[in-house]
TrEMBL record:
It holds the Pfam family BPD_transp_1. The keyword Transport applies. It is a multi-pass membrane protein. This is Spermidine/putrescine transport system permease protein. One of its GO terms (biological process) is transmembrane transport. It is found in: Cell membrane. Belongs to the binding-protein-dependent transport system permease family. CysTW subfamily.
Length: 284
């Protein structure tokens, strides 16, 4: 009897944590999303599901922009992170821990401060663009801040370690003898990478995409600091609805719609990539 209870006791703290800080807030937010009213007279539960349609119709541009920024940032992080993780895993030698520490070093500074630092670096007359303009390399009206490039660049910078680490872990598990065996069978380095290394690293890519795309799409800090009015993301809209307009039902409806879009995107991505193949590769 005691053996049957022990597993449930072990998961009890985690289960309670999820119940109190995830399930209960989600249920409450779902309830708020169908309310009507205002902050002065109070909100009443009227099951007004039209809040979802109205919110999506009003802010579909920001939704699509957020998904586009998330996809662009995720692709950029893969392009940057994969060679970095590959080099650390196979060429890092005894200093792998040092290189990983360097990757994580920016995380010793808060997320907001890291983003604000880029605002100073990319300022029109900052230490990066100012000298180039003085030398005539760039025109005087050239600017990066308040553009799409600045927001996607900030997203890529801030979430890059979340892509490097899972890919590194996957590559670290690749047995070098398997790669050597493929080369003994006259496979070129490119063929060994395409047929062996990359497929075995897919679990890391899969995890990295989940860890970067979801927070990038819902991010609002980078758009607030590095972007302008034309780069507003859905996270900024939700923040405004909650904290400025006090329109809690609209904010809750937008949050749930964003969550639904994320879940659908993740399921489609997992189906396209083939989670069974990923799990099989991870188990090797």
């Amino acid at each position: 009897m005691r053996r049957k209870i022990v597993p449930y006791l072990l998961i009890l703290p985690g289960g309670l944590w999820l119940l109190i800080f995830l399930v209960v807030p989600l249920v409450y937010m779902a309830s708020v999303s169908t309310m009507t009213g205002d902050v002065v007279n109070g909100f009443l539960q009227t099951f007004h599901f039209a809040n979802y349609g109205q919110a999506l119709a009003a802010y579909k541009t920001q939704f699509l922009r957020s998904v586009g920024y998330g996809l662009a940032g995720t692709i950029l992080t893969i392009v940057l992170a994969y060679p970095m993780a590959y080099w650390i895993a196979f060429k890092g030698g005894a200093r792998k821990s040092t290189y990983l520490l360097l990757v994580l070093l920016p995380f010793f500074v808060s997320f907001v401060l890291r983003t604000v630092s880029w605002k100073f670096l990319l300022a029109d007359d900052g230490i990066l663009l100012g000298p180039l303009k003085d030398l005539g390399v760039l025109p005087q009206d050239f600017h990066i801040l308040a553009t799409t490039v600045a927001v996607i660049g900030g997203l890529t910078y801030n979430y890059l370690p979340f892509m490097v680490l899972p890919i590194y872990v996957a590559l670290e598990r690749v047995d070098p003898r398997v790669v050597e065996a493929s080369q003994d069978l006259y496979a070129t380095r490119a063929q060994s990478f395409a047929k062996i290394v990359f497929p075995l690293s897919l679990p890391g890519v899969f995890a990295g995409v989940l860890m970067t795309f979801v927070p990038m799409t819902s991010d609002y800090v980078n758009a607030s600091i590095l972007g302008g009015p034309a780069n507003t993301m859905i996270g900024n809209i939700i923040q405004t609805e909650y904290l400025v307009n006090n329109d809690y039902p609209a904010g809750a409806a937008l949050s749930f719609t964003l969550m639904a879009v994320m879940l659908i995107g993740i399921f489609v991505y997992a189906k396209a990539l083939g989670t069974e193949n990923v799990l099989e590769a991870a188990a090797r």
